[in-house]
Amino acid sequence: CAAPEYEHGVPVVYGVDLARKQDYTWVVGLDAAGNVAVDEHWQSDWPVTINRIAGLVGRTRTLADSTGLGDVVVQMLQRRLPNVEGVLFSVPQKQSMMEGLAVTIQNRAVRFRAGSELHKQLEVFEYVYTRTGARYSAPEGFHDDGVCSLALAVEGRRRVPEVPEVHAFGGRAS
Q1: Percentage of residues of the chain with pLDDT beyond 90
Q2: What is the pTM of this model?
């Protein structure tokens, strides 16, 4: 799934992992083919972060982590952008999304830039089996913000109706 260069289209869905001080706010946008078309991360205060997210995602479907303080930030985003949907990262929800991301990667249904920070996070991301199921996270000293935003985008893409196939001369498949 990691490629040094690849063509990508306009994002049809975004995943947003929110953070302010210790982690990064991370935004991943996927095009209709599953290519990462937007991959941005930063640390800033909430007003700057909200404006930057709004500028990136516009009216495109967006799934954002609404865990903890993220709930308030998602509500603020939703006032401006009704296309933003909050996703609570409960243990079962995160497990389901990470397993969906793993299957997507195994099926090579997503593509991202080789050597990028996102690629590096995916390389070190791990799971540990516990008595209640698998726990997914980055190892001590690493971050998983990019992985979480990609998982949110993959989940959002799964929910988007299929893009109609367009044939030469602008005709649509029937």
Answers
A1: 43
A2: 0.82
